[in-house]
Amino acid sequence: MSTYKLTKLRFKDGVWQGSLQGEGKDCPPPQISVTVLDIAVDGVNVIETDETNQWLVDVPVPDFAVGDGVFTFLLHDTGTSQVLGSFTLMGGDVLADDIRVEMALLREELDMLKRAFRRHCVETM
Asked: Which domain of life is it from (predicted)?
């Protein structure tokens, strides 16, 4: 039985992309399925790379998973039913009390204050 290691590469333009590395000699190409809320995601691509036992995995995020709430995507090897990895999208009111959102707001306010202070310094000289 082959095992795989999934590593996130990027998430851009609505497509999550990862690198799947097969461990062991001559791993067969993986059969990947992706689900979110127990719904299969269409359009998942597994592309062989120039490296031995390595593939790129592209997962397009469906429209219904972009909105308020928490959406966890599970990537499975259908041959072994092994969960290879996951990623989560969060949006809307669910983030209202999230510390990362609070930090981002504080950074934006600090940047605004720095600009106002610099403008004030220039005007009073």
From this structure: Bacteria
103-106 contacts at long range (C-beta below 8 A, 24 or more positions apart):
none
**Which CATH superfamily is 3-92 part of?**
Rab geranylgeranyltransferase alpha-subunit, insert domain (2.60.40.1130)
- Taking Cα atoms as reference points, which of 33, 11, 9, 1 lies closest to residue 90? 11
How many degrees, rounded to 5, is the angle at CA 41 between CA 40 and CA 47? 125
Amino acid at 70: V
**Nearest-5° angle of CA 17, CA 23, CA 24?**
150
The answer to whether 71 and 59 have CB atoms below 8 angstroms apart is no
Residues of the chain with pLDDT below 70 are 1-2, 94
Q: How far is the C-alpha of 60 from the C-alpha of 73, rounded, in Å?
A: 11
C-alpha–C-alpha distance, residues 22 and 1, integer Å:
11
Q: For the whole model, what pTM was predicted?
A: 0.72
